[in-house]
Amino acid sequence: MKNALTVDLEDWYHICGVAACADPAGWDAFESRVAQNTDRVLALLRRHGARATFFVLGRIAEREPALVRAVAAEGHEVATHGHIHRRIYEMTPEEFEEDLLRSLDAIGSATGLPVVGHRAPEWSMRPHTLWALEILRRHGILYDSSMVPLTRMGSPGFPVNPGPVPTPSGDIFEFPLTAMRCFGENIPFTGGLALRLTPYFYILSKIRRMNREGLPAMVYFHPWELDPDPPRLPLPPARRFMTGFNLQGAASKLDGLMRHLAFVPVREFVPA
User: Fold this and answer.
1) CA 33 to CA 10: how far, in whole Å?
2) Among 25, 100, 173, 267, which residue's beta carbon has the most beta carbons within 10 A?
3) Is there a contact between 264 and 2 (Cβ–Cβ < 8 Å)?
């Protein structure tokens, strides 16, 4: 059974909801570490023969086109993560469409390849922003991976398993955040802070159980989670915990999962 492996290709300062990072005009003041951290990601994937989907910020494709080409050259899928790392629910439909098109143009210029996948920054699809799915489908996006079936993030009514979602422009395939059922709630465990918090043996055993039931899981992470000496910003306590807790444990957990499980890009789950 194959599982989806995904990388949100963004830099360490691309943090939603933090005033110091909000304006793209000020991003050049931060040290860029995305190239060296992505090299670490590619080396990890190469070591295990794993292929992944890289959800790339359009801004990074503009500034680091050779990096994005290198990702594609190693057989990984390149999809869009938007252009300037803005949450969907902070944009109007017109602003979302403009941001999407800028990202598609930047990524397409870097790779020369069509882009058919999308993930919103910070998993920011909400019940009141489902209009975004039709915009995505209208512009050639075949699948989305932006929904989280959680009570306090996304919606508990969102799908928990991959499948098609109808839009006026045709079906779009949704691969939501993988979650486990615990005490009547859906709980994430396969990426980001949740992966760094959850014991490795539980992550592996739960994914294996899903695979035995015929269900694929999706693992996700960011290049900055593999940085051995990440820069620090003065963040509110919750944000500091979210971005900094147990970073030293991320690489070993990902290494173990790639040794014991089979991973492919999201595109391979989308019906032809």
Assistant:
1) 10
2) 100
3) yes
What residues have CB less than 8 Å from 188, skipping those under 6 apart? 148, 150, 177, 178, 179, 194
Backbone dihedral region of 176: left (phi > 0), alpha (psi from -120 to 50 degrees) or beta?
Answer: beta
**The pTM is what?**
0.95
Going by C-alpha positions, the residue among 127, 142, 19, 34 that lies closest to residue 80 is 142
- Distance in angstroms between the alpha carbons of the first and the last residue of the chain: 19
Cβ atoms of residues 115 and 89 within 8 Å: no
Name the architecture of domain 2-269: Alpha-Beta Barrel (3.20)
Strand 53-56 to 2-9 pairing: parallel
* 16 Cβ contact partners less than 8 Å away, ≥ 6 residues apart: 85, 86, 87, 121, 122, 124
**3-state secondary structure at position 58:** helix
144-158 confidence digits (pLDDT tens): 999 999 988 899 999
CA distance 232 to 77: 30
Q: What is the DSSP string of 77-100?
A: EEEE--SS---GGGS-HHHHHHHH
pLDDT tens profile 122-178: 999 999 999 999 999 999 999 999 999 998 889 999 999 999 999 999 999 999 999
Is pLDDT at 79 greater than 80 in this prediction? yes
Reported confidence tier of residue 17, pLDDT bands at 50, 70, 90 = confident
Report the distance separating Cα 106 and Cα 9, nearest Å: 14
How many residues are recorded in the chain? 272
**Can you tell me the distance from the alpha carbon of 49 to that of 66, in angstroms, rounded to the nearest whole number?**
22
